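Narrative of activities, Objective 1.

The group set out to show that a structural description can be obtained from nothing but a protein's sequence at a throughput compatible with the screening campaign. Below is one input-output pair from the validation batch, recorded exactly as produced.
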Amino acid sequence: MGLVLVDLGATPGTAVASVPVQNVEPPPGEGPEFGKASPVALVVILLLGLATVLLIISMTRHLKKVPASFDPEPDAGEVSPEAPERGR
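Output recorded for this entry:
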């Protein structure tokens, strides 16, 4: 196909510019980026999904080991300052 120039409609006092016409749509299945990234992107997305699932399972196991409270447990022989004293 030959080179076709398009007139942009110059008005008096402005510079004249011509732009070559470009094919708007490439032929079906033959674009410059057709088929290059899609299989790789699919593998990356699947691996990210698998990694996310494994991290969720691992974090759930670790969170089950966390105690309900981090307050120190009072010993049986000690009297806590908040508890009322008995026997006086």
